[in-house]
Amino acid sequence: MKINRKLFPYVLTLPALLVCVGILIPFFTAVYYSLQRYNLKMPHMKGFIWFDNYVNIFTDPSFWNTIRVSLTYTFFTIIIELLLGLGIALLLAKRTWLNNVLGVLLVLPLMIAPALASLIWRLLINPNFGVVNYILSFLGLEDFTWASHPDTVLFTLIMVDVWVFTPFIMILLLAGLRSLPRQPFEAAELDGVPEYYKFFRITLPMLFPFILTASLFRLLESIQQFDIIYALSQGGPGESSMVFQVSAYLQTFQYTNIGKAAAMMVVLWAICYFLCHVFVQQWHKLKIKTKGELLQ
Amino acid sequence: MSYLDLDNLSKSFKDDKIISNLNAKIEKGEFFVVFGPSGSGKTVLLRLLSGIMMADSGEIKMDNQIINELHPEERDVSMAFQNFALYPHMKAYENIASPLRAKNKNMPENEIHEKVNEIANLLKIGHVLNQFPKELSNGQKQRTSLARSLVDKPSVVLLDDPLRNVDAKIRFEMRLELPKVLKEFNTTVIYITQDFREAMALGDRIAVLYDGKFNDIDSPKNIYQNPSSLTTAKLFGDPTINNFDATIKKQDGFVEVDVNGEIFNLKRNTKIQDGKCIVGIRPEDIVLSNDHSENSIEVEFRTKTPLNLRIVFLVRLKNGLELLCSTTEEESHLIDENKKMYISFIEEKSHFFDIETKRNLE
Amino acid sequence: MSINVWSILKFFAYVAIIMFFLFPIAWIFNMSFMTNDEILRKVPVLFYEPTFKNYIGLWEGEIAIEGFATMYVYFKQNLINSAILSVGSVSVTLLLGVPAAYAFARYKFKGGEDIAFTLLSFRFAPALLIILPLNLYFSEIGLYDSYFALIWVYQLITLPLLLWIVRGYFEDISPDIEYAYRLDGHSWFQSFWKISIPLAKPGIAAASLLCFIYAWNNFVFALILGSSQIQPVTVGALAFITASAIPYGLIACGIVVSVLPTLILALFIQKYLVQGLSLGAIKG
């Protein structure tokens, strides 16, 4: 009976734990693959080659291109989404009728599958009938190349990412803004502190934990983005929008080079792990600083 | 043969010993009050008895059977929680009916109805049975929770400071009403409180819990009159008992007390040995007067304040020792603070404690 | 004066935001009621006779195009697949996740936090890292292209989501309420079923809906682990758009039908969205 009580929580978590194990196995398998020469087309050549795959990808200029594209994509999506999300959150902070309705409606892009969002935009920017092209023509922008040209494809992808995920930042920061304590603002008002000072010295610092949380989520998703890019450009034209996961996908299913793809994924995993670690540390520091008042 | 037998119970959290080697024998039908300061482990004790927590060592015997390992639902024990613990998604009726539905699976609906209404009427909540807990007042919640713990006539009812979270008026009413209601059920009650007045008003016996064990188990009167230690004496009484170090010397029919050179006599018949000890005198056992009499001591008035329908005076002896004296309001009107004031001590109403162990020396 | 400039700027900000974020959705809805001819005009038409031909065609699976033979589309199967996968995933997640969430909330047990965080960390691991080996495994043991296998992999997303949201709701229930119920003479399971679950119901419902949305919106799992037989709308719609000669109105219609369920559900969980999206890190 007494043992029963101690074991009970494990009994409850066991099913979830099994799923967990079922996922840890592939994870370690992937790490193992990354140390092998493993190409589905040449099964007889399979063999253990230590870090050759890693050496290979890091001496391959196209992998460096992948890193560059991925980081560019991540950097711009996060910066734009943060600024835009913060701006919209500030605009909607006051609880008016219009703001409440917009707060609900603006979440809709986030609820659309990213892959489908890409398809929506593909129809909107179609060179033959895209309505966006028509609108841009009034602004003097004729025949914008969108995803069909290496110079504009990243811009197009970032725009779709911004369209889908800005609402994520917006809704989190809006919740943050609306939960801020009133007193500091009232005190500042009494002291006649100017608006910009109030924003930079009160609003922003108090909002920081929310910004950090939202950025962490976005950062990890953005650097791994696959759906939007695969559905819109599949890494092209050429390799101009080749990000980590799209590259690994093509390595696997076009070139059947499992070893190389696995090595790339392990590198991406390491980057994510590192970023996550740094962020969680900052987050903990902040949590201690605000004594858990803002973040539960 | 006692009904409920706690034998060397111990429970600790990490290195924190909450209950250590606690012993008690409780009779069937007894109203047993567990009294102790906050943090003394009263609630933990109840949780051990109810099966919510498991004791580290020791035995709990009920009707001669060890029940340590039984789950809460397997023990014939019910409990009213301090925070009421009502089921928020069920109406008061269903809250009270819950034990009936559980234990007697086949109890017909009309019998449940009858029993719920009976206990509800007894506790005067018959009119709110159709309301959800959030619609009830604190007093009604408390009665609902009591009704739930009593409806199935359990052998042992555990009441965890049930009057703590209700306002003063309801507390006063319930203090009068509760013993009557519980007597009707002829059940063994273990009642937790940190209010010594409540303990004294309700308990057949009081067990005083601190340092992880019962330090006194006795009738309210005996504990008040003859506390086992200074700590117990301090817990019973508001304002708390006066205590000071002194050297005593037994004389014929009285005890000579020497406090830093100030010597006075206490009328006591005692077998206590001469020497150093702590003298304890309750504020209400000191008589205050403007008139000098035999054995009275002149004091200086410091301040006074009303407390619990009495007036408490703070006075100072010549040697600097400060004492609290408590008088009724009528008595206090007879005293003029601007005149000389004297105190004297009521016969046989003083206590002597060991300086080291604080144990009662008698 | 400056207030005027400020409000004009604000007005334009509102217009720009609404245009950028909401116009695309509106226009896709619009397109789904157009014929191919109306869509293909260089200057978009605003006034036209709305047609349900696209919807009917999508449902019936065949559409007649002037000058061509009848076309067959299999989008209905994608919709059914999406429904099976999403409902299946949420059901499995509820079955596995609710008891585990309860355990994490109620008991401090050795390794408990580690398990909880490991499950959470999968949410942030690169999906391909895990499905790539799974793809090879599944092919070997014949699980490739089965609903069962896909639903299992979907747990990667839905399980941590539910676990971390529902855990918070269980934590908010006073344990005393459960103990009280057990002291009334009910077993643990009865108290779990009659007390804990009903009290955590709003959280469980919100988490399930969010899980459903995430499952429905998933793309990469089915792309890699399933053939067109079991692929959901996300993958199906991409195949749809890449195939030539399918009328654009039909594509728009397919997209509309695919996003509609999640858009509608999103309106129901407004209150819980912030907490859900941040996995409980921020209480909305």
Describe the 3D structure.
The complex is a heterotrimer of chains A (296), B (362) and C (284). Chain A is an all-alpha fold. Chain A has one domain: MetI-like (MetI-like fold, Orthogonal Bundle), CATH 1.10.3720.10. Chain A contains 13 helices and two strands. The longest helix of chain A has 32 residues, at 2-33. Chain A is globular and about 80 Å long. The two termini of chain A are 36 Å apart. In chain A, 42% of the residues are buried. With 362 residues, chain B is α+β, with helices and mostly antiparallel strands. Chain B has two domains: 4-229, Rossmann fold (3-Layer(aba) Sandwich); 242-353, Nucleic acid-binding proteins (OB fold (Dihydrolipoamide Acetyltransferase, E2P)). Chain B is built from nine helices and 20 strands. Chain B has helices at residues 42-50, 92-103, 109-122, 138-150, 168-185, 196-202, 220-225, 230-235, 329-333, and strands at 4-13, 16-26, 31-35, 57-62, 65-66, 77-80, 156-160, 188-193, 205-210, 213-218, 242-250, 255-259, 262-266, 275-281, 286-289, 297-307, 310-316, 322-328, 341-345, 351-353. In chain B, strand 17 (310-316) and strand 18 form a beta hairpin. Chain B is elongated and about 75 Å long. The mean pLDDT of chain B is 87. Chain C folds into two domains: 2-72, no CATH class; 75-277, MetI-like (MetI-like fold). Chain C is built from 13 helices and two strands; from the N terminus they run H-H-H-E-E-H-H-H-H-H-H-H-H-H-H. In chain C, 74% of the residues lie in helices and 2% in strands. The relative contact order of chain C is 0.14. The radius of gyration of chain C is 24 Å and the shape is globular. The mean pLDDT of chain C is 85. By secondary structure, chain C is mostly helical. Chains in contact: A-B, A-C, B-C. The interface between A and C is large, with 84 and 91 residues.
